[in-house]
Specification:
single chain, alpha+beta, 23 strands, 7-stranded mixed sheet
Length: about 425
């Protein structure tokens, strides 16, 4: 996988209630983009992002897993997260590494407790959100009902940018509200077709509401719109992007992960609508005196990287996942741990796709990757160039709610149990 500059990267957490299809969607997007050659099902226990024995046994995700794809000269780093509340720490950790969130909602179940929890966490983190209504080909899938459900539970700022073409088992594609064109799946993408006559009024009404919502993001454009001036498509698109980043518009797309319906459109919209790491003018960190320091997404600045996840890998040992804020993490570099003051020698940086690890020359500003065998670093730490030691705020994880005592079955096993517990605590900050 080649190196990408910050403007060509999208870091996206895929979240949703358990069973909404986050892992199936991640697998489908990996397959559609060509990152994997075979698409597997969760029931088979062979998906890219659910590879731990417990995940395979139970058929659910228990940890956040990195899965990057390349699409139209853009790298999208997906973080597939667990849908059950027991593993909310994985979601909170992932949110510190991404710039936007894709919330997956089942077309048959609608907004559930896990959906609302993820929404509130994303709101708290100030992250732009895009909603994907999955399983549109299932029995009892009703897009209008889901939209009403979203508006009731989440708010009226949700805005459909796709409308379904067909219903339940006859679902065959989507209608793009922006350009008012229909796209029917052909098994390897989609063919552009005319919008059916019986749906034209529905599409025109949705388009009108989209334009009204978009222009609200820009006072100058809204003034022209209210004066009756025609607003060009490129200006409307710019307003949409602006509204999404401001958190006043939350686009809704739809499709089917399992049947590979409308995934090209989803990838296209993530590329066009979601922010790159460069969208913020700067990120704030603190120096040793507690003074604010601005960090910019450029490789010209001294290196600053945030450790958002730690894994005890059975083959390479301790694996630390990094989001690089500025500079570049390269093999052999010496970075200072802002929490301990100790210097960490960086091994070969890795690009991680599920459990597959590929050595790379470096992890650039705005990108996500991993390094093995860091000595003192743990989740929440900031690694910096010695010329500028700063600290980023660590994620606030929930406190434990269940208390248990652990005893050894046989004398002399205390050391083994102790080291095993230490590794568990490195992986899960809530223990």
């Amino acid at each position: 996988m080649k190196e990408y500059t910050g403007d060509k990267i999208r870091n996206v957490a895929i979240v949703g209630h358990g069973g909404a299809g986050t892992t199936s969607l991640t697998e489908a997007l990996l397959y559609r983009s060509g990152a994997i050659s075979r698409m597997c099902k969760v029931e088979d226990g062979q998906t890219t992002t659910d590879f731990e024995p417990e995940e395979i046994k139970r058929g659910v995700s228990v940890s956040a897993t990195l899965a990057p794809v390349e699409w139209n000269d853009v790298k999208i780093n997906f973080l597939d997260t667990p849908g059950f509340a027991d593993f909310v720490a994985e979601v909170k950790g992932a949110f510190r590494a991404v710039d936007s969130v894709l919330i997956v909602v089942s077309a048959t179940s609608g907004v559930q407790i896990g959906t609302e929890q993820c929404w509130n966490l994303a709101e708290e983190a100030g992250l732009p959100r895009l909603i994907f209504v999955n399983k549109m080909d299932r029995e009892n899938a009703d897009f209008d009902q889901i939209m009403d459900n979203l508006r009731t539970k989440i708010g009226k700022r949700v805005l459909p940018l796709h409308l379904p073409l067909g219903k339940e088992e006859n679902f065959c594609g989507v209608i793009d509200v922006f350009n008012q064109k229909a796209y029917r799946g052909n098994g390897n993408g989609a063919d552009e077709i005319e919008v059916p006559d019986e749906l034209k009024d529905w599409v025109a009404d949705a388009h009108s509401k989209m334009v009204e919502a978009a222009v609200e993001a820009d006072d100058e454009v809204m003034e022209k719109y209210l004066e009756g001036e025609e607003i060009p498509d490129n200006v409307i698109m710019n307003c949409l992007v602006k509204g999404i980043r401001q958190g006043i518009i939350f686009p809704v797309l739809c499709g089917s992960a399992v049947n590979q319906q409308a995934l090209d459109m989803l990838l296209f919209n993530m590329h066009k609508l979601l922010p790159s790491p460069e969208h913020e003018a700067s990120k704030l960190a603190e120096d040793a005196n507690g003074e604010p320091v601005e960090l910019h997404c450029t490789e010209e600045e001294p290196t600053v990287a945030y450790v958002f996840k730690t894994v005890a890998d059975p083959f390479v040992g301790k694996l630390s996942y990094l989001r690089v804020i500025s500079g570049k993490v390269t093999g052999g570099a010496a970075l200072v741990n802002a929490r301990t003051g100790e210097t960490e020698k960086i091994g070969k940086p890795l690009t991680v796709i599920g459990k597959k690890q590929v050595e790379t020359d470096g992890i650039g500003a705005g990108d996500i990757g991993a390094v093995a065998k860091l000595v003192s670093a743990k989740t929440g730490d900031t690694l910096c160039d010695s010329s500028r030691v700063v600290k980023l705020p660590a994620a606030a994880f929930p406190l434990p709610s269940l208390f248990m005592a652990v005893t050894v079955a046989k004398k002399g096993d205390e050391g083994k149990i102790s080291s095993a517990l230490a590794r568990l605590m490195e992986e899960d900050p809530t223990l």
